[in-house]
Amino acid sequence: MTELTGMTLAEVKAWCGEQGLPGFRAGQIFGWMHRGADWEEMTNLPKALREKLSAEAVVQPVRILQQRRSAIDDTVKFLFGLRDGNCVEGVLMRYHHGDTLCISTQVGCRMGCAFCASTLEGCVRNLTAGEMLGEIIAANRYLSQEEGGDPDEKKRVHNVVLMGSGEPLDNYDEVVRFLRLLREEEGTPISLRGVSLSTCGLVPRMRRFAEEGLPVTLCVSLHAPNDRIRRQLMPIANTYPMEDVLDACRYYIGKTGRRVIFEYAMTEGFNSSERDAEELAHVLRGMQCHVNLIPLNSVPERGLQGVSEETVRRFLRVLEARHISATRRREMGDDIEGACGQLRRRTIQQQMDT
Q1: Catalytic-labelled residue, pool 102, 113, 289, 340
Q2: What is the pLDDT of residues 277-330, one digit of tens each?
Q3: Is residue 89 annotated as part of the catalytic site, yes or no?
Q4: Which domains does the chain have, with CATH numbers?
Q5: Which one of 3, 89, 174, 337 is the catalytic residue?
Q6: What is the DSSP code string of 11-38?
Q7: Is 102 tagged catalytic?
């Protein structure tokens, strides 16, 4: 079936033309679709037409199966259901400057990073651009219903991070199409400057992405000060050494003028000593960047543990003393399994047990 969510307004108009519909129907369908409505809710379309179109096309490829709201900080964890029975996760984070949604780009992940639960079952498939946009549309509908009214500027997702399950640049074409869909003014528009894309370091695609003219923030999962440590945590480091990853980051900075964010999950006994911090500061010296220090969410299946707050503070002090911009990332949703992959994995295990 045709997935309309992944289309621009012009493409929906073309599709409506193929169905023998007048042009104004495309605007009606497009508007309803981006408010999260399914066919039966499009009441300004004749019932017979809705029934006909519902056999031809999908307007909502994503639905919320579960939602968990944190009692600590109002973070909401979503388990999104897809039409083929698969599920992915999303996290809605509340900030004073607007709500941010972390979305998934693949069902699972094949990158194999040792600290990530998303990769434990491998990658099942890529998400389509329409499914990625569908995660945002579903979250916006949740916000409008939560607040008890129609969506407005305060009741929608303002920023997006592509940091849920999956490696975005491993699903390159659909991710780029999704980002371009965010520029549709009549759709679900979000400024690309409010979008962050996380990669484990697929160097050729990082360089290709720099050429796309999409002013998103590139976040690179570095997690180590050198190749020896990085290879223990991230299999991709066996293909692309740190020097190549950092060169690709410099290329991205030069092309876009935007600083790169380095994600650094601090893992006890691997990458969290003051010596590690000194080495990291040395390799990042002179680069337009920021380091996000993340105390690891323990992954029992991997035997990895997080670090103490004192360890984080010592590491941060070393970076700051060497003029590397860095912060400890705010933890959100700790009481609702906010870390990527945890809820999906537990749901799959429960299904296998029943």
Answers
A1: 340
A2: 999 999 999 999 999 999 887 655 656 778 899 999 999 999 999 999 999 987
A3: yes
A4: 2-58 (1.10.150.530), 62-353 (3.20.20.70)
A5: 89
A6: HHHHHHHHTT--HHHHHHHHHHHHTT--
A7: no
